[in-house]
């Protein structure tokens, strides 16, 4: 993946991928039709991957399909082992590293000895293998999470699953199939319905913008011109900085993770941006099935999120043993822009489950 100067963080998020992409019609003929979303790595990329793979705590988990995925362990605990599912699809684990280790202003779960934290790059993400075949469906990803769990030795006596955004989709889907393996479930900033998430954007978030801006954005979208620099700059300033991460300066971990996004896989599944939902998950909705989830569950939302905070709170009432955490000052990355509230709520949830005090 080629490095380039970031004009806007939104353009980094949307345009960064492997080597420069072909024209849109060629892209459509390739990965949208074939499912071949493999990234092409430069010499610098390969060097960076090798350096990451040689860091302490790293292991590559070989899946039953022959591909391998990156995992990294922080801390040790017999009782609390947290597997972290990143978003995207096809971001990297890096933007969630503050779940594990100390950042300015707070201590991570592994720092305080509260948990053993396992980061992992899902298949097709930068530090994991790059299949050229079409493997991209939720059922296979759920099976991947299960195989990673087994390889890492996590079980119902210690296994907490924490997913953000797309990772929240995987976490909920995993619980519907394998909740007998879980001790606790933490869903961060992900509604249980993509149609409702898209509708919230249209009904609530877009009207917060000035009408002329909305008209301009919708004109670009109608033309399919999602990579236009003006469109990307407007999305960054008017949407991403208000609803994805509200910090004046985005953390290096977030910027780096988004820079290493596999955009082809992201676009295939999610659509062209957080502002314009599409792709294979466009009709995904498991809200009617939330009542099947009996494991202790924390639903995390945020006031300024791309997701409806009221929906996140409601989801906590639809599972059998749920609790809601709404980060009042946070957005989609509340773990960064409202980290005190986020980590107080997450660590409190884990503590209460461990002490048998949940859901009180």
Structural notes for this entry:
The chain has one domain: Rossmann fold, CATH 3.40.50. The longest helix is centred in the C-terminal third of the chain and has 16 residues. It has 13 helices and 8 strands. The N terminus is likely disordered. The chain starts with 8 loop residues before the first helix and ends in a 6-residue tail after the last helix. The chain has an 8-stranded mixed β-sheet, with helices on both faces. By secondary structure, the protein is of the alpha/beta class. Helix 1 crosses helix 8.
Order of helices and strands: HHHEEEEHEHEHHHHHEHEHH
Query: Helix amount, in percent?
Result: 25-40%
Name the poorly predicted regions.
1-28, 102-106
Query: Which CATH C-level class is it?
Result: Alpha Beta
Tell me the structural class. alpha/beta
Into how many domains do the coordinates divide? 1
Shape: globular
CATH topology: Rossmann fold
C-alpha termini separation: 48 Å
Strand segment tally: 8
Which secondary structure elements does this structure contain, and how are they paired or packed?
Blueprint: H1 9-15, H2 24-34, H3 43-53, E1 58-62, E2 68-74, E3 81-85, E4 116-121, H4 138-152, E5 159-164, H5 166-178, E6 184-188, H6 194-205, H7 211-222, H8 229-243, H9 252-259, H10 263-269, E7 297-302, H11 309-318, E8 322-327, H12 334-337, H13 339-354
Parallel strand pairs: 3-4, 3-5, 5-6, 6-7, 7-8
Antiparallel strand pairs: 1-2, 2-4
